[in-house]
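Hi R.,

As promised on Friday, here is the backbone we talked about, encoded as structure tokens. Could you run it through your design pipeline when you get a chance and send me back a sequence?
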């Protein structure tokens, strides 16, 4: 378990599936988290149950999903993950979703990512972290840059959202760029 200024990251539990089901069936969460990708949602409880069975068995040597809790209330508000961890190259990919709308724009996602970045650069000794979003998610773009991620590339017109085309934006951070603001 890791505690930051506003959130706690803890291991995923089976009972967290109910939150994931709600978030993945919320059109606004799907819009911002996955640019409306229909593979993210809507989903059935059975599909989430199957995915959760897999997530609960993940080897933290390769990937992990954490539950994000609000420190003040203890309420489950989102998830953060890493995947594609390559110990030889020293690289992993990160993800963050704050599923509870009233916590959007309040710094909880940034705090959760800060904790995850510190964990991966610290415990795993990685040299590089990366994540991506779509160009229409300006809040995520600003948050990633504020944490120290640098835009490294774009896949132009790679995202279709509500009939409009957006870029997929790739961000990266090197260990030496991480200024761990505790």
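Update: got your reply. Pasting your designed sequence below so it's all in one thread:
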């Amino acid at each position: 378990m890791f505690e930051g200024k506003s959130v706690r990251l803890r291991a995923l539990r089976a009972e967290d599936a109910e939150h994931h089901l709600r978030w993945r069936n919320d059109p606004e969460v799907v819009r911002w988290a996955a640019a409306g990708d229909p593979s993210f949602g809507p989903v059935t409880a059975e599909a989430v149950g199957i995915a959760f069975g897999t997530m609960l068995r993940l080897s933290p040597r390769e990937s992990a999903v954490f539950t994000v809790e609000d420190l003040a209330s203890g309420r489950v508000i989102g998830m953060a993950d890493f995947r594609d961890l390559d110990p030889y190259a020293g690289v992993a990919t990160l993800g963050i979703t704050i599923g509870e709308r009233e916590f959007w724009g309040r710094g909880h996602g940034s705090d959760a990512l800060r904790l995850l970045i510190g964990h991966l650069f610290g415990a795993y000794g990685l040299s590089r972290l990366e994540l991506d979003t779509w160009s229409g998610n300006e809040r995520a773009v600003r948050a990633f840059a504020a944490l120290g991620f640098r835009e490294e590339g774009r896949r132009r017109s790679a995202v279709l959202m509500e009939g409009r085309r957006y870029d997929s934006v790739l961000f990266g951070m090197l260990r030496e760029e991480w200024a761990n603001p505790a």
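One thing I noticed while checking it: The beta strands are 2-3, 7-11, 64-70, 76-86, 91-98, 128-134, 150-161, 164-174.

Thanks again,
M.
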